[in-house]
Amino acid sequence: TNIILLGPPGAGKGTQARKLVEERGMVQLSTGDMLREAKTSGTEMGRRVAEVMDRGQLVTDEIVIGLIEEKLNTVQASGFIFDGFPRTLAQADALGELLAKNGQTLDAVIEMRVDDAALVARITGRYTCGNCGEVYHDETKPTKVAGVCDVCGSHDMKRRADDNEDSLKTRLMEYYKKTSPLIGYYYHARKLFTVDGLAEIDAVAAAVAAILDGKA
Ligand code: AP5
Ligand code: ZN
């Protein structure tokens, strides 16, 4: 089963993707994570994307499609979770072609619906384990022991450079302008499902699971 998690910054895509990896053994393909990795690699591409990302703008289609293509050609999985990709109509077309080329299909696009007011609180309270990637929040999902990852015990907690109100404003504008048209695109392709992203993390997970089980 291959699915897309679609939603604005802070909707909870990464949080739900990690649960699916844990519970169903699916493979998460997050272009945001791949780009953040490229950022720290010290390569020319890394330097170019860092600036764009930190401002909150979208990286070029060419770069992200290339990253996804490489993964699809090298990683074997019973199911992929596309997290933060596609984000433009051109990326959606490219994904359709790449999957078809590998004899695969796209089974569901899950739109996580949240309102803007909630996103500021989600984004400004977020921190992540630098070792295992677990995602936390100051209020809604703090670590059990302050500064120590529940999952792996690491003390390496990180906040993202683009998790400030200014960059978030740009990220939201980019989302409404370039990414939200994908909702109509996948609706017409009869692949769209919507969940209430404002519900508690476990309730959202249950709604996502119900969609996947209906597809299995
Ligand atoms: P990316 O890394 O994809 O970031 P994003 O889309 O802005 O999404 P986030 O990671 O911010 O949010 P999320 O939905 O995963 O929420 P999370 O689960 O962490 O992209 C970053 C940048 O990279 C882009 O701006 C762009 O520059 C570039 N980029 C990436 N992909 C690209 C592409 N395809 N094309 C071009 N450019 C690309 O949750 C957020 C917080 O809320 C956490 O603290 C979490 O604990 C908490 N939370 C989650 N769910 C709940 C809940 N149900 N209730 C309460 N709290 C919750
Ligand atoms: Zn950890």
Task: Describe the overall structure.
This protein is of the alpha/beta class and 216 residues long. 50% of the residues lie in helices and 15% in strands. The chain has 9 helices and 8 strands. The strands form 2 sheets. A 5-stranded parallel sheet has the order 2-3-1-4-8. A 3-stranded antiparallel sheet has the order 6-5-7. It is globular. The relative contact order is 0.19. Bound molecules: BIS(adenosine)-5'-pentaphosphate (AP5) and zinc ion. Zinc ion (ZN) binds next to loops. Residues 7, 9-15, 31-32, 35, 52-53, 56-59, 64, 84-85, 87, 91, 122, 125-126, 135-137, 140-141, 162, 171, 200-201, 204 line the site of BIS(adenosine)-5'-pentaphosphate.
In short:
With 216 residues, the chain is an alpha/beta fold.
